[in-house]
Amino acid sequence: MSDIVAANRDRLLQAAVEAKAFAYAPYSKFRVGAALLTEDGEIIKGANIENASYGGTICAERTAFVKAASEGKRKFAALAVTTDVASPIAPCGMCRQVIREFCSLDMPILLAASSYMEKKDGVKELTLEELLPYSFGPEDLDRDRAPPA
Ligand SMILES: [Zn+2]
Q1: Mean pLDDT of the 3-8 span
Q2: Taking 70 as the threshold, does the pLDDT of residue 1 lie above it?
Q3: What domains are defined for the chain?
Q4: Ligand 1 centre and the CA of 65: distance in Å?
Q5: Catalytic residue annotation
Q6: What is the distance between the alpha carbons of residues 92 and 22, in angstroms, rounded to a whole number?
Q7: What is the per-residue pLDDT across 57-90, written as a single tens digit (0 to 9) for each?
Q8: How remote is the CA of residue 94 from the centroid of ligand 1, in Å?
Q9: Ligand 1 center to residue 148 CA distance, Å?
Q10: Long-range residue pairs from 5-9, CB within 8 A, at least 24 positions apart, any chain
């Protein structure tokens, strides 16, 4: 774990818990909070924002990334995610791909159990590569390829 992540680990996990309080989840009742740590030590929070159309729903992780990226923040050191579930819950497939767009494969992703604030425990730590092995990313578009027929 890099110095910046170690120094901000608890702050980042706490921010994910705070973000969860603003989840808009009237349909699933499944609240999710995410917090992104930039390489500058800034934290950007996100919560899941559901929609009556269902398809318009945006996950907490993507909310955080879109908030950050749309403000010019594109370099991240870690991501934390938490829910109301007693065990750590991992990002959905679509969010994993969005994380892949902006983060290195060795970036830590901290998945916190709902009891994190009381126990300061129950955190599963994975890298992006562990969450999304054999992934496709921006650099793959630069690969040599046969011209279209
Ligand atoms: Zn998701």
Answers
A1: 94
A2: no
A3: 3-130 (3.40.140.10)
A4: 11
A5: 61
A6: 19
A7: 999 999 999 999 999 999 999 999 999 999 999 9
A8: 6
A9: 33
A10: 5/37, 5/77, 5/78, 5/108, 7/41, 8/37, 8/41, 8/43, 8/77, 8/78, 9/78, 9/110
